[in-house]
């Protein structure tokens, strides 16, 4: 069943993205994560069996915490007011650089 989903994902999604371009590049780009994940799992497997389940849970918790922290500061998740403030600060910085350039 997984092979069916992979082939549909590869041909439909990446084929649509590659419409009008060289599709082979997009197919390779879409298939690369699967190939790399299989390679990484083969390389890392001997080391993972040594780690205890509690340590594995701690590692997973830490990385999930980092992911949430990063998402909190992503522009798409900020309130509208904060996005406007960032945009205004960027505009002010650009205006200062232009003023320094011409004075």
User: Alpha-carbon distance between the termini?
Assistant: 67 Å
> Which structural category do the helix and sheet elements fall into?
mainly alpha
Order of helices and strands: HHHH
Number of helices: 4
Largest sheet: none
The radius of gyration over CA amounts to 23 Å
Helix content: over 70%
Poorly predicted tracts of residues: none
Portion in strands: under 5%
Please report the total strand number as a whole number.
0
State mean pLDDT (0 to 100 scale).
Answer: 79
Descriptive account of the structure:
By secondary structure, the protein is mainly alpha-helical. It has a domain of 50 residues. The chain has 4 helices and no strands. Helix 1 packs across helix 2. The longest helix is centred in the middle third of the chain and has 26 residues. The protein starts with a helix and ends with a helix.
List keywords for this structure.
103 residues, mainly alpha, 4 helices
Brief summary of the model shown:
The protein is mostly helical and 103 residues long. 83% of the residues lie in helices and 0% in strands.
In terms of topology, how is this protein built?
Blueprint: H1 2-17, H2 23-48, H3 53-72, H4 80-102
Helix pairs in contact: 1-2
